[in-house]
Design goal:
The chain is built from nine helices and 19 strands. It is α+β, with helices and mostly antiparallel strands. Helix 4 packs across helix 5. It is globular and about 60 Å long.
């Protein structure tokens, strides 16, 4: 019952045949790659941290002088991490070296078939002890990157090995982490296919690297509620696709619809799939509302393969379930259900959740020519739950609230 104009019923039998012809296992066999699970003991899929080489830069980069002027992803630290993989030898020697350009042939598969996945995480300077650097649930990011690599048939790795290499990189460039609440060091691990020949199939070589970027607060002067454009034309992800993976191919096609929404005066796109709400911009969507009997419920779309399993999403669910103050549900919600709840004044608040902003309050939704207002506490510029979640998660990230989610690395 999925409605996609680009599909036609006559394609069903053809698609069934192609599944067998281009299955991951078949592709791997053709390319000489043995596809195994992330729990494999095969040494080709382990990053040997004991062999990590650290080559400190001889030409330090110009460091920011005014942290208040930091822009997301514009400045980078002195060093980066990288390790190469081949189907014949597995993961090579991991190296931390000076930040540099990559050298790849124009035939590399990443440039032609979008064989690329990445992660987004942050390092924070402890509020109470500025000599301490903290990571927030970093193993979740390692697990998700591994899942993304598996979806692209790129080589997996041992989570602990990669995380230890990233910790050493962050520790080396620790002086780049700005002090202060809201400031952090953005960490971008990335894996790409580097096979030198053209052809749609599993890559027989890959590169795993990580770069660091100092960033300022998402909301430097306090919350700024956003207005959304509910897009019933463009689709971010679809059943059987890669919506649950953090692949670059999920993001590039969203740029044009986002630009169109911005021209109309909206901050983000509210993505729909067959009228069901999926994500907001690049964040997971949450709605706090009452049912017709007045029962309070926090709703977010389920992880059905079209939704990215966000670390912040998981944290919001865990915290609110622990608080036990209302029902917390992972279920589908149609745009029609949301509009009805807005008309009936049953929506208490709504917000997006993601690494960059933690939570982003929503002030309004535009759907089919009509603007619907979402309640906002004027004194907070956000809903009360949104503010509480932001304060709690940020408190954990900066070491103010003791939690196993916050991991000190030195």
């Amino acid at each position: 019952n999925i409605r996609y104009p680009i599909y036609h019923t006559s394609m069903l039998s053809l698609r069934a045949g192609l599944r067998g012809l281009f299955s991951p296992a078949r592709q791997a066999a053709v390319c000489g790659i043995r596809f195994s699970s992330t729990t494999s003991d095969d040494s080709r899929y382990k990053i040997d941290v004991s062999k990590l080489k650290v080559e400190t830069t001889k030409t330090p980069r110009t460091k920011y002088t005014d942290k208040t002027k930091l822009l997301f992803g514009h400045e980078f630290t002195d060093h980066m991490f990288e390790v190469e993989w081949t189907s014949a030898k597995g993961w090579g020697t991991p190296v931390i070296s000076a930040f540099h350009n990559l050298s790849l042939p124009p035939s590399a598969t990443v440039f032609h078939y979008a064989l690329e996945g990445f992660e987004g995480m942050k390092a924070y300077r402890d509020t109470k002890d500025s000599s301490k650097i903290r990571l927030f649930r970093p193993m979740k990011n390692m697990e998700r990157l591994n899942d993304t690599a598996k979806r692209l048939l790129l080589p997996h790795f041992d989570n602990e090995g990669l995380l230890e290499c990233i910790k050493r990189l962050v520790k080396l460039d620790g002086p780049w982490i700005p002090e202060g609440k809201g400031y952090s060091l953005y960490i971008r691990p990335t894996i790409i296919g580097t096979q030198h020949s053209l052809g749609v199939g599993a890559s027989n070589s890959a590169l795993l690297f990580c770069i660091l970027s100092p960033v300022g607060p998402y909301y430097p002067t306090g919350f700024k509620p956003v207005k959304l454009y509910a897009d019933d034309k463009n689709v971010r992800a679809w059943p059987g696709g890669a919506g649950a993976s953090k692949v670059g191919a999920n993001y590039a096609p969203t740029i044009q619809p986002q630009a169109e929404a911005a021209k109309k005066g909206f901050s983000q796109v509210l993505w729909l799939l067959n009228d069901n709400i999926t994500e907001v911009g690049t964040m997971n969507m949450f709605v706090l509302l009452k049912d017709k009997q007045g029962k309070l419920e926090l709703v977010t779309p389920p992880l059905d393969g079209t939704i990215l399993p966000g670390v912040t999403r998981d944290s919001v669910l865990a915290l609110t379930r622990k608080w036990g103050e209302f029902q917390v549900s992972e279920r589908s919600m149609s745009i029609h259900d949301l509009v009805a709840a807005l008309k009936e004044k049953r929506v208490v608040e709504a917000f997006g959740a993601g690494t960059a902003a933690i939570v982003s309050p929503i002030a309004g939704i535009h759907y089919k020519g009509v603007d619907y207002e979402v309640p906002i506490d004027a004194s907070l510029s956000a809903g009360k739950l949104t503010k509480r979640l932001a304060d709690t998660i940020m408190g954990i990230q900066y070491g103010e609230i003791p939690s196993e989610w916050s991991e000190a690395i030195n």
